[in-house]
Specification:
The protein is α/β, with parallel strands linked by helices and 320 residues long. 32% of the residues lie in helices and 23% in strands. The strands form three sheets. An eight-stranded parallel beta sheet has the order 4-5-6-7-8-9-10-11. A three-stranded antiparallel beta sheet has the order 1-2-3. Strands 12-13 form a two-stranded antiparallel sheet.
Length: 320
């Protein structure tokens, strides 16, 4: 039996990127029961990729309730719906085998990974204050992508003078804006810029200087998307809601490394259940951005543990 239902998690405060704001994380939770065992998974439908809560539910409702992971890869395209089902099937397999997912997947035992903490788009003075409140965190990810980004960036650096910084423009810049900002990003110690140009309009990245690593987010989905990124990007941001789950995520990560890309593992704004499989994918990644639960005011039972060492692998009571 496959069950899918919508859930809402309140955010601690409004979360804003160049495309808009949200105060609630809306997710689809999938539970698959076979015999006495139930596995669960979560996805975040994303309008940027043409997904809605209803479309994801419809995709899942159309599945054979006895489907296995290998068949799932053909039954659904990469995206949120397949991610939730893939995650639930991994969890189900682990419970039925009474083993952890990483053992079933042939992966080393995971440890904690240091994660970025995201500062949402706001006026410069608000971003300075947010940076100061979070200056103890090792990596801050800054949401930008507007014509007035320099004051925001300067403000964040003032608020957190020693934190590592990465930038996410969310497709909001032009080649001219990026070329103008790049020297200032270097001056302020930014170590990575994510998706500066719109997906599908990013060929100029192969022609202009890239003085710091450029990461593909909206341009990167699964293995099939990697070939088009060569020469334009240095890093790929792998999110399970884009790859369509951990099964494809692991394959995409391995192929990306073979092709010479560095890896970032990111997330949508979701609960600990959504982050749990991504923690396995993030083992050994150069950058990790799995801060979704830190942005919420409420979370699942048995939530992921975050401390000075980073985000820890999930308790078996939550997932895997």
């Amino acid at each position: 039996m496959i069950q899918c239902h919508a859930e809402r998690f309140l955010l601690a405060q409004a979360f804003t990127i160049a495309r808009g704001s949200k105060s609630v994380a809306e997710v689809q939770t999938v539970r698959i029961t076979r015999g006495m065992a139930t596995g669960q998974g979560e996805c975040v439908p994303y309008a940027r990729y043409g997904e809605t809560m209803e479309s994801v539910r419809a995709q899942i409702a159309g599945l054979d309730p006895t489907i296995a992971r290998p068949a799932l890869q053909q039954a659904l395209p990469p995206g949120a719906a397949r991610n939730a089902v893939d995650s639930a099937l991994w969890d189900l397999e682990a419970k039925m085998a009474r083993q952890r997912v990483w053992t079933l997947a042939g992966l080393p035992r995971p440890g904690p990974v240091v994660t970025a903490f995201t500062l949402s788009l706001a006026p410069p003075e608000d971003m300075r204050a947010a940076a100061a409140r979070n200056a103890h965190r090792p990596i801050l990810k800054i949401k930008l992508g507007t014509p007035d980004d320099m004051p925001r960036l300067e403000a964040v650096r003032q608020g957190a003078p020693r934190a590592r910084l990465i930038i996410d423009a969310n497709e909001g810049w032009t080649p001219e804006v990026y070329a103008d900002l790049a020297p200032h990003l270097l001056r302020l110690g930014v170590e990575l810029v994510e998706q500066p140009l719109p997906a599908g309009q990013d060929d100029m990245l192969a022609e202009i200087a890239r003085p710091l690593p450029v990461c593909a987010d909206e341009s990167c989905f699964d293995r099939a998307s990697l070939a088009a990124l060569k020469g334009k990007y240095d890093v790929v941001n792998l999110k399970l809601d884009k790859t369509g789950g951990l099964t494809e995520g692991l394959l995409t990560r391995d192929l990306a490394r073979q092709m010479g890309f560095k890896v970032m593992v990111g997330c949508m704004v979701g609960s600990s259940l959504a982050m749990a499989p991504a923690v396995l994918l993030a083992q050994g990644a150069e950058w990790t951005d799995l801060d979704g639960p830190l942005l919420l005011s409420e979370d699942r039972a048995h939530p992921l543990r975050y401390d000075a060492d980073g985000v820890h692998p999930a308790d078996a009571n939550l997932w895997g």
